[in-house]
Amino acid sequence: MSSHRILITGASGYLGGTLLARWKDAGLPPFDKLYALVRTDAQATAVQQYGAEPLRLDLEDEKAVRESIADKKITIVYFLIDAIKSQAQVFLIRALAQVKNATGSDVHFLHKSQIEHTPFDPFKTAVTTNCTVIEEADRYGVRSYIFAPCIVYGKGEGFGRIISRQTVDVVRAAQASKRMYKVDDGRPTWPVCHVIDNTTLYIRILHKILSGEDPGHGRNGYFLASPGSVAWDDLYTAMAAAMAKRNVISDDTVVSANEHILEQMAEALGCPPQFVSVFVGGLCTFTAEHGKELGWEPQFAPEHIIEYAEAEVNLILDNL
């Protein structure tokens, strides 16, 4: 049996919860123990049904992080929580390095990159955090893996949050402005992924690690879970039709946003008007080659998000 001990953060969240829910049926190679970071008694009870031992830990307390990770000899961390700064990630990386020094085992840090709702440039924040993770991990001999952001959709399977963030932003912006608006010129596209396919890539990488293989780490450890991209205009149109059907908006046509509308959308999204397109638009040309090299095969085609749009909107409206 592998001596690896694994910690999942964000177990009550959309991505972490779905990962935990699929854990028992993932067919992973043997490992020593699974921990899940929790904040409440209810969460502690919930994670145990998936075979995880609850762990209470303040990730902003470096001393507590080092002591807890070292005491439990945790060697793999899935960082799936929302964090604007990179402080918690750095603390965990340093703690993993301490475990490596004490045990001689390889240690691994898997980081979910994200675009944050911040008052400053969110892309710059995400890139800076990713660079910090890679540099700190390299400095301390920790193998790091970065998951690039895409539009994740579908019903989460965990015990906590079951709705995405990216599609929720589209709904909230349309609700606030009483109509579906596009925020870019042309027909920009963005990678999409069903939450189940996103989870299977998490699992595929972990399978490689537990098997003693190197899936690619550090500067060669960027991953994107996506079968392909869709045009924002097509997603807007499909979601607008669903929202009009629910009488959330009165008109299902999609038009370009002006400055006044961008201000309304920005207020709903909690960002400056100039960054609205970061959350509900933009162009991304990333392709998901790395995961496929590991044998990852997505179940859902990119066009599925358009076909699923009504179900996605209903799920969001019923769970906001």
Automatic annotation (TrEMBL):
Which is one GO molecular function term here? aldehyde dehydrogenase (NAD+) activity
Which PANTHER family does the UniProt entry name for this protein? NAD(P)-BINDING DOMAIN-CONTAINING PROTEIN-RELATED, PROTEIN YEEZ
User: Which superkingdom, per the lineage?
Assistant: Eukaryota
Q: Gene Ontology cellular component? A: cytoplasm
Q: What is this protein called?
A: NAD-dependent epimerase/dehydratase domain-containing protein
**Domain NAD-dependent epimerase/dehydratase, which positions?**
6-80
Family matches, as Pfam families: Epimerase
